[in-house]
Amino acid sequence: KQEVTQIPAALSVPEGENLVLNCSFTDSAIYNLQWFRQDPGKGLTSLLLIQSSQREQTSGRLNASLDKSSGRSTLYIAASQPGDSATYLCAVKGGGFKTIFGAGTRLFVKA
Amino acid sequence: KAGVTQTPRYLIKTRGQQVTLSCSPISGHRSVSWYQQTPGQGLQFLFEYFSETQRNKGNFPGRFSGRQFSNSRSEMNVSTLELGDSALYLCASSFWGARDEKLFFGSGTQLSVL
User: Fold this and answer.
1) Distance from C-alpha of B110 to C-alpha of A84, rounded to nearest angstrom
2) What mean pLDDT comes out for the span A69-83?
């Protein structure tokens, strides 16, 4: 059974800092991994999607990497801003096309 | 292009009642999946529909059901509500629900059971 873990659970950083969020999964037989952002009480916004055959994806200040063999993904955020404050979730799609989510990392960027 | 639309945005019900939530996917998307989000359990998969057929189901009791219409709009129903059903219910859509597709989420329906 696929399990997805995100570390740390919460993170507080000063504005301008570069940071890394971690996601690990137990079953490496995945089709893709997707990173989302969620603002309080709102839906999820897709940030990056990495296919199982890819190693990384980039969008603006965001870079996500995937190491399927070790069951790990990282989301790198460069030059963090207060507007980046949100919960970041990773999700893996595997067998049966089910998408399993991690519990998320709550990020707070201080001005 | 309009995003995924969920209605209503907020609902307050009492124990024992039933509730129906609605989800309109992005135009052209035929796969709709539903998730329950709670502070304790996080995001949990409920079920997924494609072309009016349920393709996948999570580990929820039979009180949770859903359906999809020919225009791809989907509804989920929860009968005999319990306090523990209080949650944010999210739906997501994609073209085919295929392995390489992104999921696009709606803003959710916040259900409170009193």
Assistant:
1) 24
2) 96
- Partners of A39 on chain B (C-beta within 8 Å) are none
Q: Which two tokens stand for residue A5?
A: 């873990």
Q: What is the pLDDT of residue B2?
A: 79
Q: Is residue A96 less than 8 Å (CB to CB) from chain B? A: yes
B 38-57 → A contacts, CB under 8 A:
42-45, 48, 55-56
DSSP element (H, E) containing B46 = strand B42-50
Nearest to A50 by CA among A81, A19, A91: A91
User: Which amino acid makes up residue A34?
Assistant: Q
Q: pLDDT tens across A25-45, in order?
A: 999 999 999 999 999 888 899
What are the DSSP calls for B65-96, one per residue? Answer: EEEE-TTS-EEEEE-S--GGG-EEEEEEEESS
If DSSP codes are grouped into helix, strand and coil, which group holds residue A82?
Answer: helix
Looking at residue B35, the DSSP 8-state letter turns out to be E
Structure-block tokens of residue A47 = 């940030």
- A44-51/A32-38 β-pairing: antiparallel
